[in-house]
Fold this protein.
Amino acid sequence: LGVAGVLSATASGRGTLDNPQLTATVQIPLLQMRQASVSGIKANLNVANHRAQLDLDSEVAQTFVQARGTMDLTDGYYTRATLDTKGMPIEGLLALYAPAKSNGPHGILEVHASAEGPLNDKTRMQAQVVIPTFKADYQGLQIGNTRPIRVRYANSIITLDPAEIAGTDTTLRFEGQLPLEGRAPVTLSAVGAIDMQLLRFLQPDIQSSGKLLLDVHGTGATAHPELKGQLRLQSVSLMTPDAPLGLQNLNGVLDISNDKIDVTQLIGDAGGGQISARGVIGYRPQLQMNLALRAKNVRVRYQDAIRTLLDSELNLVGTSEAANLTGRVLVNSLSFTQNFDLASLAGQVQSGPESAPSEGMAQNLKLNITVQTARDLNLASSEVSLQGQANLRVIGTAADPVIVGRTEFTGGDIFLMNKRYQIERGIVAFSNPNRTEPVLNVRLTTTINQYNLSLTFLGPLDKMQTSYVSDPQLPTADIINLIARGKTTQQAAASPSNLGASSLLAQGAASQVSSGVQKLAGLSSLSIDPTLGGNANPGARVAMQKRITSSFLFTFATDVTSTQREIIQGEYQFTKRWSSSVTRDENGGFAVDGKYHKRY
């Protein structure tokens, strides 16, 4: 519970069961609750002559709080009680529920309450709560009451006297009456305009603007009052730090009638596109929904690494206990941001922990959403170039979604460990309906030291089968050594022994430098090999590659031990099958190559 303190108590008594005499004192010098404290709690109880009297004093949020009460210990148990506070800082009260912040909301709240009447006959009880002062401010926003807020109870009827709250571009007037017994009708009324910036009082990190206009009235039987009115959104914008996109310029009308809310018109912007919603929301006897949700040209960013441009048509139908979200999402384009990192993303996919399904409505919301690409997508970053298409479905529940379907890559290349791998075949299938489990069928090709290598990956990520083929033919160990170190096992063994330790240290330092420069400059690949120069001088060879567009790759390589050993190459991919490259060698000569890719 987060409560700590020391309690001391003394008590003494005498008399008979019919007429007891009792004196008791309870003291708590300091009671710590979350980030707040209540100090100086002292309660005195005196029972004599068939009457009990209680006096309670304490200090809450550095403000004196006093309670007094008497109760006749006879038939009826007639009671009189009061509770009074001075102006309490609201930041101290908020600390009871959340950690206190020096730059949080500030304000004052004053409360007075009283009750009188026989406890065994609630129809004769009377009580009232009065808030004469309430005001708060936060980041230039203000809100407070313009008149005392008074709630009364008498004759089994709770009455809220006409009250008004005003603040930054905000005025809200409300009143009501709620009978607890009898046939008197319920009456409720709330009219005004609320500036959406005031949401920052509840969530400081939220960014909001616009207005909510409301005109709601209710009347009828206590068990089933009829509500009528309208909520109108005007230029509402809303953005939270964790949301992948925010809402801008949201305008709409929500008509309230009896047990439902008609969403007759709700249109806004999100991610540079347009969103809209229409339908009906029922709120009695339980939450019921029948909504059509539309999105057009909406941009969504995933983990600050991937951008998508999509259209969607979704339907939300059901209740809070059993609902279905169905429809179609069309991905028009995918692109990588400058922060995209292939290794980081792959690590998250392979080793990310599975969270336990959450409870509540998300567990009861079933999904059946088709996700397709509008056409062959062409993605490019400094490290990855992909062409392909996807046809997927999202099933399961909102608390535990599952992806099924198929993604096919028809071409592209990937830079891993400063080596370029071309995608000859790439199929990622999701066939397990119980969990998202990608099954790969991918073949990559690359050339290292005049060896043409082919790598094939088959199976799920946790049971991956890998095969290696080289031309000219090499043992598997040599192929792995080529990929990892750029040398075959025989070449590595033939290296001079005096280069062993120094070469290892130099290569490690070069790897760190090249990795940092590569990210800073946005290069696809930057390699610094300290042992491959003409004279084996550390810092001898530098090679860099930069993907200019998704179709054009530029390569520059030089041996810094000789100004005559430079190679410049540009490669352009005309279609999925045709590509051409132009190379200028160290002698100033040019070579033009054309490549035609044929799959058998």
Observations:
- Residues 361-494 form one domain.
- The chain has six helices and 37 strands.
- Confidence is low (pLDDT under 50) at residues 350-354, 497-523, 528-539.
